[in-house]
Amino acid sequence: MLTPEDAVFSDALNHASIIDGIRLCKAQKFRYPHRDLNELEHLLAHSEARLKLIVTDGVFSMDGTVAPIKGLRNLADKYRALLAVDDSHATGFFGDTGRGTEEYCGVMGAADIICSTLGKAVSGAAGGYTTGPRELVTLLRNVSRPYLFSNAPPPPVVAASLKSLDLVEHSGELRQRLRENTRAFRAGLQAAGLTVAGDDHPICPVMVGEAPLAVDLATGMLERGIYVVAFSYPVVPKGGARVRVQISAAHTPQDIKQAVDAFADVARSVGIVKS
Questions:
Q1: Residues 260, 188: contact at Cβ < 8 Å?
Q2: Greatest extent of the chain over all pairs of C-alpha atoms, in Å
Q3: Which of 155, 184, 192, 199 could form a disulfide bond with 264, CB atoms 3.0-4.6 angstroms apart?
Q4: Rounded Cα gap, residues 233 and 229, in angstroms
Q5: For residue 84, pLDDT beyond 90
Q6: Distance CA 226, CA 223 (A)
Q7: Does the N-terminal peptide bond of residue 234 adopt cis geometry, omega within 30 degrees of 0?
């Protein structure tokens, strides 16, 4: 939808799929520091682009941080820009009724465009969607190459996705259990002396700093029967190595306690937390 006369403004920590999409489009490209509304405003104010598009993750997948949706909407209105949100790490479980980052931030309808997935909380196993003004969706149906030149999703995936959406809309039990699990896990790790990044989100990055320590921590956890993944540069910034944990509604309170106890034990044994 963007031409060389247009401009896209992207958060520095946006997901790789967003970055690849931006690289493929013909628009002018600007990147602002993570969640830095002041720098974004500076870029918007000095842009003479025909159409300005702000693109952000709703929740950032490696950090568990939440985009400042209200502030982004205010800037979009002030500088006549569009706001696009990738809500793949929020759809179905974030916000009181699972409607994602907009609902969590109390600004329903703030985004002009929402892209999300059918492969995570709303799980038909694969696929995704874009929602927005009817005119935009009609345009994408006719000009979006990944949509036009790929196969339609298999019927079982469509059926599972529709059923998942039905469960999200008519039941809050799993969301409540997930919130309880998330808070218990975060509180437990903080009490054990570990640093957990993010904003009350089930993506819980346990910050370590150095890559070898992150690998040692993840390896020790696996030896105790708990699968977590270490990430380091270039996936995350230098000095920002972490072990990324994803909490699920399927976890029991005992699972959470077992994971917290194991993290505390391994963190002491590898020297992250001093005894």
A1: yes
A2: 62
A3: 192
A4: 14
A5: yes
A6: 7
A7: yes
- Name the nearest CA neighbour of 128 among 142, 143, 139, 144: 144
Active site residue 89: yes
Q: Structure tokens of 231? A: 């990430």
What's the CA gap between 169 and 15, in Å, rounded? 27
Rg (the chain; Cα; Å): 20
120 has catalytic annotation: yes
Burial class (CB in 10 A: 0-12, 13-18, 19+), 36: middle
Cβ proximity of 194 and 185 under 8 Å: no
For the chain, helix, strand, coil in percent to 5 are: 40, 20, 40
Strand arrangement, sheet containing 28-32: 28-32, 7-11, 52-57, 81-86, 113-119, 123-131
Alpha carbon of residue 225 to chain centroid: 26
Catalytic residue (one of 15, 52, 89, 201)? 89
Give the angle subtended at the CA of 181 by the CAs of 216 and 100, to the nearest 5°. 105
Residue 154 carries which DSSP code?
Answer: P
pLDDT at residue 116, as a whole number: 95
Q: How far is CA 57 from CA 24, 30, 199, in A?
A: 18, 15, 14
Residue type, 217: L
Residue 25 structure tokens: 């489009």
Q: How far apart are CA 253 and CA 108, in angstroms?
A: 32
Active site residue 34: no
Q: Hey, what domains does the chain have and what are their CATH numbers?
A: 6-170 (3.40.640.10), 172-270 (3.90.1150.10)
Residue-wise pLDDT tens digits, 111-155: 999 999 998 888 767 888 999 999 999 999 999 888 889 888 889
Residue at token pair 């190459």: 145
Active-site choice (34, 120, 144, 248)? 120
pTM: 0.91
- Catalytic member of 61, 116, 164, 232: 61
